[in-house]
């Protein structure tokens, strides 16, 4: 798929995955698992064509909501093991990278797509969302860690494919977008 509609669909799936990651962070409920930063440049605003919006996660991740509700009742957060602290740190960094990616797509890439449509690989964004939803059902443990790794790899693939698609257009207007995506990718590679 190519063009703004494809990118909007891709962003919608990524936002669905990101919402799940944020709910997971809240469900861990410890000081070791900071919440992802909220989008700073229009990430919370809906753009054109987003009337459908990202899928609602409330029905899909009830265990996450239950854990959040427990914290809301004042139950103390238990101290985390070293593995839990590391998983929370990775989760926060993947959520932050996903947030920055969506921001870059919404603010930098979407306006340029009207000039020069290029391929957007929707399948990867759908896979990212699905991995995040599956991760929410795991909550913790080996499978959770594996899903977190797969979500990380999927984000990396999305960014790499966007950079490759942009490379086909020598327009100088794409230079800031490529630079921004490369920076997000570089930060993601350090996780």
Structural features, described:
The structure is a single chain. By secondary structure, the chain is mainly α. It has one domain (4-29, 81-189). The protein has helices spanning 4-28, 62-72, 82-113, 122-138, 142-167, 175-189.
Chart the SSEs and their pairings.
Elements: H1 4-28, H2 62-72, H3 82-113, H4 122-138, H5 142-167, H6 175-189
Helix pairs in contact: 1-2, 1-3, 1-4, 3-5, 3-6, 4-5, 5-6
Quick structural overview:
The chain is an all-alpha fold and 191 residues long. The protein has one domain (4-29, 81-189).
**Overall outline:** elongated
The whole-angstrom Rg is 17 Å
The counted number of beta strands is 0
Question: Count the helices. How many?
Answer: 6
Structural class: mainly alpha
Poorly predicted tracts of residues? 35-73
Largest pleated sheet: none
Helix content: 55-70%
Order of helices and strands: HHHHHH
| Overall mean confidence score, pLDDT | 76
Distance between the termini: 30 Å
Strand content: under 5%
Short descriptors:
single chain, 191 residues, mainly alpha, 66% helix, elongated
């Amino acid at each position: 798929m190519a063009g703004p509609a494809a990118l909007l669909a891709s962003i919608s799936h990524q936002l669905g995955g990101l919402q799940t990651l944020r709910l997971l962070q809240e469900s861990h409920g410890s000081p070791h698992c900071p919440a992802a930063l909220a989008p700073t440049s229009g990430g919370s605003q809906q753009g054109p064509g987003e009337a459908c919006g990202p899928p609602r996660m409330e029905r899909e991740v009830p265990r996450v909501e239950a854990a959040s509700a427990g914290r809301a009742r004042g139950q103390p957060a238990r101290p985390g093991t070293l593995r839990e602290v590391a998983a929370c740190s990775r989760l926060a960094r993947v959520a932050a990278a996903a947030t920055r990616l969506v921001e870059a797509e919404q603010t930098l890439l979407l306006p340029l797509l009207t000039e020069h449509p290029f391929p957007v690989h929707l399948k990867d964004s759908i896979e990212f969302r699905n991995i995040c939803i599956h991760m929410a059902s795991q909550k913790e443990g080996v499978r959770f860690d594996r899903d977190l790794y797969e979500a990380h790899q999927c984000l990396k693939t999305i960014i790499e494919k966007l950079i490759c698609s942009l490379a086909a257009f020598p327009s100088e207007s794409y230079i800031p977008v490529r630079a921004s995506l490369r920076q997000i990718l570089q930060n993601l590679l350090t996780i």
